[in-house]
Request: fold
Amino acid sequence: MWCGRTRALLRMSGLWPIGVLGRRPLNCSAASLAGSNSPRCWNCGGLGGPLRGDRFFCPQCRALQPPDPTRDYFSLMDCNRSFRVDTAKLQHRYQQLQRLIHPDFFSQRSQTEKDLSEKHSTLVNDAYETLLAPLSRGLYLLKLCGVEIPEGTDYEVDSQFLMEIMEINEKLAEAQGETAMKEMESIVRAKQKELTDNVSRAFERDDFEKAKELLTKMRYFSNVEEKIKLKKIPL
Reply:
């Protein structure tokens, strides 16, 4: 009984290793071996780099470290791994990270840190743009779940939907003037809103096949949106 209570107290105080009950603490040689496998800072050789989480800098020499290869976009942007994203929070996080790692702040640092800041900044830009738009966010979330829709492929799109897309494209080709273009934008926006809501519900049910089908349809409407933008550009 006392042995069990002692173990509990040691675990609470951080002096007993977390894991299987009764596991012995590492001896000195084993602890040294474990420490030797920890990542080290490229600049000073100290433990702690490349760093995990939001610690982008070596705690000892403050040199910028390489990006964490194990971190996904949701973790980097401090978002739950979910289709529903707080875009205001996402934008705040983006600005926060760019104030830390943007290349402009490393112009007087070593070439290594300049290169690393470029990598970090590119990664943050990609993460922000991917999570900001519902289509790219959904495709990325599917990828994390082991499901991908290769570019240029149609995933079991029903003929009725294809007919709908053809009719919308025909109307767009015939549309002339600002009023007609606004009407087309309104139609496509409503369709995308409906599909986005349905994708969200599919992810909440972990129905990845349904999400895949809906995201494929969103791709079609995204192409129509691009055509509308191009048509609005004056020749």
Summary: Confidence is low (pLDDT under 50) at residues 1-36. Residues 177-204 form the longest helix (28 residues).
